Amino acid sequence: AADAGEAPAPSDDDSAAPAPTEETLQVAFISFAVANTYDEPMLAEIERVAAENNIEITVFDGNLDPNLQVTLVQDVIASGQYDGLITQPVFGPALVDITRQAIDAGLTVVNVDQILGDDFTTGATQVEGLAANVVFVPSEIGTKFGEQAVEACASQDLDPCNVAFLHDVKASAIGVALYDAFNAVVEGTPVQIVAEGETFYNPAAAQTAVADILTANADIDLIATSDQGLQGAVQAIEAAGRGLDEFLMIGYGGSAWGKERVSEGVVYSNVVQAPATEGRLAMEAMVDALRNGNNQGDIDPFADFPNNGVMTRDTADQFTGEWVG
Amino acid sequence: MSIETPEKTAPAPPRAPRSGGAGEQDALRAFLRRVPWRSVAIVVPFLAVFVALSIGSPAFLSAQNIGNVLDRQSGILIIAAAATLVLIAGGIDLSVGATYMFTAVVCGTIIVRVGGETGAALGIIVGILAGLVIGLINGIISTYLKINPLIATLAMSFIILGATKLVSQFGKEGVGQIRVDVPEFRWLALLKPLGVSLPTWIAFIVLIVLGVVLWRTTFGRYVYAAGGNAEAARLAGIRVNVVRIATFAIAGTAAGLAGVIDLARTPSVPENDAIATTLTFTVLAGIVVGGTSILGGAGAVWRTVLGILFIAMLYNGFTLLRIDPLFQGIALGVIILVAVGFDAWSRTRRR
Amino acid sequence: MSIETPEKTAPAPPRAPRSGGAGEQDALRAFLRRVPWRSVAIVVPFLAVFVALSIGSPAFLSAQNIGNVLDRQSGILIIAAAATLVLIAGGIDLSVGATYMFTAVVCGTIIVRVGGETGAALGIIVGILAGLVIGLINGIISTYLKINPLIATLAMSFIILGATKLVSQFGKEGVGQIRVDVPEFRWLALLKPLGVSLPTWIAFIVLIVLGVVLWRTTFGRYVYAAGGNAEAARLAGIRVNVVRIATFAIAGTAAGLAGVIDLARTPSVPENDAIATTLTFTVLAGIVVGGTSILGGAGAVWRTVLGILFIAMLYNGFTLLRIDPLFQGIALGVIILVAVGFDAWSRTRRR
Amino acid sequence: MPHTAIADTPQLRVELRGVGKSFGGTPVLRDIDLVLEPGSVHALVGENGAGKSTLSKIISGLYTADRGQLVVDGEREHFTSPREALDRGIATIAQELALVPELTVAENVFLGREPRTAGWIDRKKLKREFLEVAARSGFDLDPDQVVGGMRTADQQKVEILRALARGASLIIMDEPTAALARHDAELLHDVVRQLAASGRTVLLISHFLGEVLALADTVTILRDGRHIRTAPAADETEATLIEGMLGRTLSSIFPDKPVVADDAPEVLRVSDLVAPGVNGVSLSVKAGEIVGLAGLVGAGRSEIAHAIYGSVPRASGIVAIDGANCPADIPRTLKKGIFLISESRKEQGLVLGRPIRDNVTLSNMGQIASGGWVRTGDERRASRGLLDRVTVAGDDRRDVSALSGGNQQKVLFGRALQKVRKLLIADEPTRGVDVGSRRAIYDLIVQQAEQGIGVLVISSDVEEVLGLAHRVLVVRGGRIVAELEGDAMTEENIITAAFADPITTGGAA
Ligand SMILES: Nc1ncnc2c1ncn2[C@@H]1O[C@H](COP(=O)(O)OP(=O)(O)OP(=O)(O)O)[C@@H](O)[C@H]1O
Ligand SMILES: Nc1ncnc2c1ncn2[C@@H]1O[C@H](COP(=O)(O)OP(=O)(O)OP(=O)(O)O)[C@@H](O)[C@H]1O
Ligand SMILES: [Mg+2]
Ligand SMILES: [Mg+2]
């Protein structure tokens, strides 16, 4: 059974010292989706930091629906009960306007994890007035991912190296940005995408897709997809009676599951994402802004990660595995 | 609130399996029979929740909050009102969500590619027309080609969503998204005549028009007739297929209009099939909770408005009352069961 | 393939709006009349696609691929076969997806919490029973409480999804996800008696049993009668409500069984309402494409099997033929329209 | 605009030349020649399934003929929809009610022809014109009542008014009086005479030969889709019509009444039964006795039947079979030996869309199944046997909706025969049934009584009650207001009791 990724210990003392005597502040968190393993550690960190700073968090479930998120922010503004707002957009462009309204209405807004805006290639703030912006950049993940694909193929001198690439959702903004960046890197290398599928962030769907891909293509060398996708891929390979060692696999997500597979050597490498770190940084920035009026602006959650944020077999133990996978 | 859409003169009574015959009844009984119990039935839980929320949350009754709820529901209300016509005429349209998304993408792409006021105007017109065309196709395949409308519009929604993805490739500049944050277009969502948002006004007008059309025009009668007894309608000389196609066309156009309006509100298009599916689902849920039958022949626009706003009000209330999201689904389900159960119970009582 | 579920003796023809007594007709004509055109109708596109894929992709007909398709469809087939009974009896169950997810979570939670063989056994039993209980509740509120089954099961699915989230809190150790990768449980998915996966065997047996129940038992007759004409059935001495509740209970149990099987296949539960909704949608699409009417009274399990496998085969084919995901939706929609259109056309021809 | 003024309706001469029509390869009409003269009442008679409705549907544009021509006023017409026929002045009262349940009476009457101004319905005018049409027919209907909840007879009147409101030149009436009580049927007869007098044509399809002879100028007989003859009504008698329709003679419509032994035990005793529409009914039926329930439409006869059968909850009172109390629960009443053949075979009897075989065995699956498992061999034999008894020929795996009305009624009867019963309730057993089949059904009822089964027959056809029953109970307002036996059993007595002013008899309140 998978062990839960422990929340990383607060890396250092908080920039804003807790002052219990201060009044309790209210912060709304518009989540991506509440019942989601990726979001849980983020939420846990946000709540932990909030509790330490006499702040009450109210969580709203975006349930993967951008329109619903807009609705929720409207309601948060209208209720007039909140001092701060943390957004984790399902779809960045959709939230831009309403976030501006929230800022105009006097709320302190921090954006976490997902791009808030329409440019998925930059971690820079795209909405003026945000107190902080703590996001991963899909195209950066894609670039690192592409580099890992090239490295993995080179490690076995494969030329050409036939890759099955599983999008999470092919037509999604993140998907497009990530895939484009991946392609830009692998262009002109032995890496060749010979099969594509979609996981919809669901191991079962990935299992189906990979099973079909393996049936149709006898010569897959490398499977590239998210951690959820890899879980399905492993199931599909085992179900097909094939050996896991017949395939190179690279993943992104940095889950505990992914970390374990990397250290076992089943997965070649894993590009890390860090929901817990993001949650902690975002809430700390929120505290700083609410209590001290400090806007921290752009924060790179991967700044402190080793090995450029990529787990390999050698470096795996330097990572936490911030979510379960 | 725009729930004062006129009521149908004669409320549709349930088709009793056939029951105790009242031989002759006096005037009072005749009157009591005509009291629209069924209407009252869904109005009661609606009002109950409305009052409860007004008391429970001071923010609920604020102009801002009510304005928000109506503004954000405007697109759904427009679609749902039109889809009500489709249901009453004996059809069903599962493609409204996909059409909504498609027209938004088409409109957005044109605005991005053409630009300026021309782009905005063209985008609005072509977006709405795209909805109309899809509606016509839905109508034709589900009448003349005799494909069950359920499957016809389901298959159409796969096709439309696929087409949406293809079109959206043209609307992007590089890796970005279709974003239409241009004033030439966004006035559509940002104007607030008399303090009420333009989308709300548009929805209000569309609802009134559709409600009245259904209630007071020959076309409205034909819609009821086509769904209530298609054979009878045909014998009476009504072109049932034409009537049905017209309702599909209205629904498609409504979805187009809603897509354009919501694009102006948002102002970008998420590419996500689930949103289309959820929208279709929400629309049908609202219609059915309001009391329109999916079997056709009975229902009204005002019912749909009540049904949609009932659900929207509940979600709004959950947020205002800070109810844990983990419990919201349960609360929603239970309240709907109670409301509809009350409706069903009051209908049984009628006899 | 498990499509050889026995065929209904006399295929239900479309309900002609009106007909009279057949005088006398000669034997050949009588025979031609009896050829199950409607069945042929959906079988033809199924076979056409099957043959086309066999030719187009060498991998398609491989034992491995067919095995894969059947294995992964086993859960859906089980649910769809049971949901077919609900539809035939005149109901509809929109909660099967939610029930499926709920039972998987319940089963997984018990396995994680209790552990070992006891945990696995208990998980399986309680999971399936949970499905049964939900089915009973669905049945009771949509019959005795007279709430339209569409709304009743829709509201129930909100409640069940809410409950799923609550239960899953207990299934996790700390922050995480329910994962049940334990051999005491996974044998359910991994065993391959005679080279065919256990889930496929289970589905095969369930389909045969439900098909035969519908075809050859008094209960099956009552199911058709309850959906075909509830009042006539009631007057003929059939306890229509009990029959309907039984179909809901069967559907709930089937969803429970499928949830447990798929948990063993996966072996973790994604917590995502959209998956539940998509499942319900896929099930209904398959049933309707197969030709079972949502109005009740007509249909068959083998039709549903064909409908579900038709769609699954298309998706499988898209991957094997490396069709760009962007075009898959369009292709799927068009093929369904053609298949069902052919069906409709052949039915018109019959007269 | 609906033309309600009779004067400006043009006369129409409709002619069929060599018309043929088949369904699924089965010929239903063969080479029919027919002329409908303007200003006449032309009756069409024939057995169930003879093709009468099909013929009328070809004229009204619902079907198109496979062969032959339709000639209207000398022009060849090829209607492809009822709309075109309506535009040409041909309106139809369909055999199966074709009303929109959710619309009101007035809306249904003017459906497709609403008085309007630019798409808006002129509601005042609608009502005014409705009242005009209603007055002309003598039917008393509330224009604002929703049609769905109305009783069949009233719906039939709406249907009739609709045809009148079209101001058509040719009105086809397909069994318009099948569901009407005598009083309303007579009103319709007046209307038909008025129409003919004003120069319009009426094509009347009816199984009531008396009605046909009284109203029609010309009668056409169809048999098995063939034109047998067309002759002036004055030249026909009931006997000649029957002979033409059936191809054989029928000495008498009613079989001899079986003898009831004086000491025959009581099978049914009902005491002070109160239920919806039933206001305190007591009655009894002896073994082998046929008891008739007469009364006006809506008097509550069907309600009494349902209360006895247990298909509606009873407020109070006792129903006893062979002295044993019988609860209001259908499966249990069935077990006790009561069986109800309900009045509407389409809504309450048959499961359309299912095979004839399934329909015949539906009530008594236990007999052909062990442990819930249907023994198909037994089922086939049982079904065949029953269908033979009720003389329904042909493959019993066909959809029951493929049968003609009379044969459908016999299928329901077959269901009742599957098991030996104690009491059979037959509610309007011959509605819409041709003379030949009607005799077959009477024979079955009498056979049942001869076997010692008590029979309760409900019928709006007074002759039928008199011809079958040993004893007649007259129902009004959910009560039994008269019991007639022996010489007292006369049409006049029944009608008097059914109409009698409540105050003078003190029966109803
Ligand atoms: N709107 C209504 N609500 C309740 N009962 C009704 C309604 N309309 C009709 N009924 C009852 O349904 C019964 C069936 O109607 P139908 O026209 O078949 O009468 P009937 O069977 O000929 O008359 P009887 O009751 O004497 O047998 C009627 O007895 C009537 O009282
Ligand atoms: N739509 C149809 N499809 C197939 N067969 C039909 C259809 N309509 C009628 N028939 C057949 O045509 C024949 C004549 O039917 P029709 O309805 O014209 O009889 P009818 O003379 O009106 O009988 P009834 O007196 O029972 O009304 C019957 O054998 C009937 O089964
Ligand atoms: Mg007829
Ligand atoms: Mg009656």
Automatic annotation (TrEMBL), chains B, C:
Q: Where are the transmembrane segments?
A: 40-63, 75-92, 122-141, 189-215, 274-295, 300-320, 326-345
Question: GO molecular function of the protein, one example?
Answer: transmembrane transporter activity
Query: Which lineage?
Result: Bacteria, Bacillati, Actinomycetota, Actinomycetes, Micrococcales
Q: What is this protein called?
A: Monosaccharide ABC transporter membrane protein (CUT2 family)
Q: Give the UniProt subcellular location, in the record's own words.
A: Cell membrane
Keyword Ribonucleoprotein included in the entry's annotation: no
Among its keywords, does the record have Transmembrane helix? yes
Which InterPro entries does the entry mention?
Answer: ABC_transp_permease
Keywords for this protein? Cell membrane, Membrane, Transmembrane, Transmembrane helix
* Region of interest (Disordered), residue spans: 1-22
Entry GO CC: plasma membrane
Question: Which membrane topology term applies here?
Answer: Multi-pass membrane protein
Q: Which CDD domains match?
A: TM_PBP1_transp_AraH_like
Where does it primarily localize?
Answer: membrane
Pfam families (UniProt xref): BPD_transp_2
UniProtKB/TrEMBL annotation, chain D:
Domain ABC transporter spans what residues?
A: 14-249, 259-502
Nucleotide-binding among keywords: yes
Output the InterPro entries linked to this UniProt entry: AAA+_ATPase (IPR003593), ABC_carbohydrate_import_ATPase (IPR050107), ABC_transporter-like_ATP-bd (IPR003439), ABC_transporter-like_CS (IPR017871), P-loop_NTPase (IPR027417)
Query: NAD among the record's keywords?
Result: no
GO MF, one term, reads: ATP hydrolysis activity
Q: Give UniProt keywords alphabetically.
A: ATP-binding, Cell membrane, Membrane, Nucleotide-binding, Repeat, Sugar transport, Translocase, Transport
CDD domains the UniProt entry points to: ABC_Carb_Monos_I (cd03216), ABC_Carb_Monos_II (cd03215)
The record ties this protein, via PANTHER family, to: CARBOHYDRATE TRANSPORT ATP-BINDING PROTEIN MG119-RELATED, D-ALLOSE IMPORT ATP-BINDING PROTEIN ALSA-RELATED
Q: What is this protein called?
A: Monosaccharide ABC transporter ATP-binding protein (CUT2 family)
